[in-house]
Amino acid sequence: MRDHFGGRPGLFTAVLSALGLAVLVSMGHAQSPSPSPSPGLGAGAGLAEEHWRLPLAPQGEAPPRWSDVERSLAPRSCGQCHGDQLQQWRTSLHAGAFSPGLVGQLLTFDAEQTASCMKCHAPLAEQHQDFEAARQRGEADDPERRGLAASGNGCAGCHVRGHRRSGPPGRDDGATGQSDEGGPHGGVYRAAWFEESEFCAACHQFPQEYAVNGKPLQNTLAEWRASPHAARGITCQGCHMPGRKHLWRGIHDPETVASGVTARFSADGRGASFQLSNSGVGHAFPTYITPKVVMRAVALDSQGRPLPETAAWRDIQRVVDYTGGQWVERSDSRLLPGQSATLRLPWKGSRRITMWLEVYPDDYYDHQVYDALLTGLPAGGPAARLIAKADKRAAASRYRLFETELRRPD
Ligand code: HEC
Ligand code: HEC
Ligand code: HEC
Ligand code: HEC
Ligand code: HEC
């Protein structure tokens, strides 16, 4: 095996194609050919798609009269005047998208492979330039030395093209179009498509031509379009940026998950039952192949200790495998909007049962990706250190929701 991990291309093809991630890269390439917009989004994607032609072109020169803070693409500069957005964004996974799990892999890639990942995780051309410059200096493994790249999916990636700032219609007056160009950063271009779900699609929806058993591995926009939320005009932003907040909470946040699903527990003479419904998630619960959600139940003894031999569970997950050069779907038990699943456990002599939902937001990375990468990387090297950190984080992200004890009715 060792030889395969010798050179960079060797590591790349051996590890990544084993994991199927090379396919993700090629999907990325296929998504990007400019000038034709990314395929598969269908009607209504027009102007947002225009904004999101990946990889993004370099911004070029800012107008000469702009001050340093106006021309800067760094989130902390934007934050000097947009403090609320900076504070919120900092706590989000978009801010953390240039993560150890990503960079640990980029360290083993060439510039082209790196660009194909960065276009979704740190999309500015200037971010890629800064990362390659750090690599040249031998400092790419130090987050302090990666320049703009470190800011991940930052303000400018979503709001700045050719140094023009754009954003949603005016908050108070709904105004669209170019504002007064005499203001800071030459004013702003306000556009209705900032509030459309298609705005999020460039990074959260793969083209249909990469479907596995009819469904691309990232299919969030299509799931949303088929949902009653789309019909009611409730967009991605409506749920993930309420009040225009820059928080983007999702599966990693217990409160967000609890707000999207409904748990019902009941007990009768035969046993206890746990019903889970997707009552308010705007797409499949969960939407990706990476999380695993498990409904769990176990009977307790008279002291309240779990009786492991009684344990029962039901997985809610899309399981895929990369085998023989292609992706295969093993099962898909995710809940589409409106769907429910039920888990029952008979008393079998006990009088108490606990039931809960266990959420593993990073299951696929934790158990498939990082373990395999760690086997291939030179131990103790910079890439292995970053992947080990990501592996620890992924394992620590699991949590429990809705834990409830039910008693046998007399
Ligand atoms: C020197 C202060 C300053 C800096 C720095 C600054 N902005 Fe602004 N920004 C403003 C002002 C003032 C407006 C309102 C402009 C108008 O109404 O014409 C504005 C408007 C906006 C809007 C429209 C939202 C709204 O409130 O109507 C967006 C989006 C925006 N800026 C993004 C950015 C981004 C991204 C950066 C960093 C790359 C940035 N700004 C840096 C001052 C600043
Ligand atoms: C089309 C956009 C897109 C491309 C291209 C892309 N990613 Fe991601 N990536 C995402 C999204 C969205 C998530 C969050 C959902 C998830 O966990 O799958 C993610 C999550 C991840 C994570 C787990 C979270 C974290 O940051 O630790 C890793 C690691 C990762 N990607 C690595 C890569 C690598 C390596 C490449 C290039 C081979 C790549 N990605 C290319 C969109 C993309
Ligand atoms: C992932 C893309 C994304 C990133 C990253 C992002 N924004 Fe936004 N921003 C949006 C969208 C989309 C809206 C409009 C939301 C809506 O109207 O529901 C918005 C709205 C805004 C507004 C208008 C707020 C208002 O109340 O009218 C400002 C100002 C702004 N963003 C600044 C920033 C700054 C500063 C950063 C970085 C700290 C940032 N954005 C990062 C997508 C993004
Ligand atoms: C430039 C690419 C890009 C765009 C545009 C983008 N995202 Fe993301 N998003 C990502 C990546 C990459 C991640 C994973 C970050 C990580 O963990 O490394 C992510 C993570 C998220 C998460 C967190 C999921 C979790 O695991 O808890 C949510 C929610 C989300 N995005 C919603 C949105 C919404 C809503 C929009 C549109 C307003 C949007 N994103 C636009 C790239 C993007
Ligand atoms: C009706 C509200 C609602 C709408 C609309 C919605 N979401 Fe979500 N989203 C949620 C809730 C609740 C969760 C947490 C449960 C979960 O992970 O499925 C979530 C989770 C996520 C996640 C976490 C990853 C995962 O596997 O679940 C991402 C990424 C995401 N949403 C992106 C989007 C995008 C992109 C859109 C628009 C195409 C969108 N969401 C529309 C409510 C919504």
Structure in words:
34% of the residues lie in helices and 19% in strands. The protein is α+β, with helices and mostly antiparallel strands. It has 2 domains: 2-61 and 68-204, no CATH class; 254-407, no CATH class. Strands 1-2-4-3 form a 4-stranded mixed beta sheet. The site of one heme C (HEC) has 24 residues, from helix 5, helix 6 and helix 10. One heme C binds next to helix 12, helix 14 and helix 15.
Q: What's the layout of helices and strands?
A:
Blueprint: H1 8-19, H2 21-31, H3 46-51, H4 68-71, H5 75-81, H6 83-90, H7 100-106, H8 111-121, H9 125-136, H10 155-159, E1 160-161, E2 164-167, E3 177-178, E4 189-190, H11 201-204, H12 220-225, H13 228-231, H14 236-240, H15 254-260, E5 261-267, E6 271-278, E7 292-300, E8 312-316, E9 318-323, E10 326-332, E11 340-346, E12 352-360, H16 363-376, H17 382-396, E13 399-407
Parallel strand pairs: 2-4
Antiparallel strand pairs: 1-2, 3-4, 5-6, 6-11, 7-8, 7-12, 9-10, 12-13
How much helicity do the residues have?
A: 25-40%
Mean pLDDT reading = 90
Discrete helix count: 17
Uncertain runs are 1-20, 22-40
Q: State the major sheet.
A: 4 strands, mixed
Order of helices and strands: HHHHHHHHHHEEEEHHHHHEEEEEEEEHHE
* Overall structural domain count: 2
The oligomeric status of these chains comes to: single chain
Derived from helix and strand composition plus strand pairing, the structural class reads: alpha+beta
| Cα distance spanning the termini | 62 Å
**Lateral arrangement of strands in the main beta sheet:** 1-2-4-3
Rg, rounded, reads 23 Å
Distinct small molecules: heme C
- What is the total tally of β strands? 13
